[in-house]
Amino acid sequence: MRALPVGDRALLVEVSSGEAAQALHAELVRRRAEGSLTVREIVPAARTVLLDGLDDPVRLAESLPGWEIPPLNARVEDTVEIPVRYDGPDLADVAAFWGVAVRDVPEIHAAAGFRVAFCGFAPGFGYLTGLPERYDVPRRATPRTAVPAGSVALAGPYTGVYPRSSPGGWQLIGTTDAVLWDHARVPAALLAPGARVRFVPEGRP
C-alpha cells in the first residue's frame, strides 16, 4: 500500500489489486460512517482509492499500513438484483472465448456474485467484478457507434450495464429494463461503489 499526497487535503492510495482496492474502499466507508474518519469524498478506481477533504492527510498516510482491512467476503450487505434477458448480439463470440456452448453463457454469468469496483465512463455506469479470471474477454476489435441503453456487457474482467445509448466496444450479452441513472431518484445511481449485484435471468426466481 502506498499513499501519495494530492494537494494539501487529499491522498491517493495505491494498492496491489482490484480486490484490495475494493476492500480498502469498504473499510474507509465504514470508518467514515462510524465517525472515526473525517473525509469529504472517497473515490475508488481499479487499483487506487482517492480520499479528498482530509483534515490531516499526513497522519492518515502514516497510519494506513497498520490498519486491519477485512476481506470483502467477510462483509454482509444488501444485494442489488438486476433482471436481464440474455439476448445480446455477442453471445456467440463470448461463448467462443470461454470455450462453452452459447446456452451456457447466461448460466455462468448469472451464477456469479458481482461487486461494483468503481464507477465512471457515464453517470450510473459501474465496473462490476465477480467473474473468474478465465472468463475475461477482450473488447470488440471494432467498437459500435451506438450501444442501446440497458445493454449488459463484458470487457476484460468487468461486467457493465450501459445507462444510456452511447458508443462502446464491450461484448454485449444481454439487456435489462433496470434504470441505472435517474436524476429524479435519490440516489440517482442504482449502483454505487462497493455494492453487491446479482443478475437474475428473466423468468427465473
UniProtKB/TrEMBL annotation:
Organism superkingdom: Bacteria
Matches recorded under Gene3D superfamilies: 3.30.1360.40, Cyclophilin-like (2.40.100.10)
Any Pfam family hit: CT_C_D
SMART domains in the record: AHS1 (SM00796)
GO molecular function: ATP binding; hydrolase activity
UniProt domain Carboxyltransferase: residue ranges: 1-191
UniProt entry keywords in alphabetical sequence: ATP-binding, Hydrolase, Nucleotide-binding
PANTHER family referenced in this protein's UniProt entry, alphabetically: 5-OXOPROLINASE SUBUNIT B (PTHR34698)
Protein name per Swiss-Prot or TrEMBL: Allophanate hydrolase
Species in which this protein is naturally found: Streptomyces populi
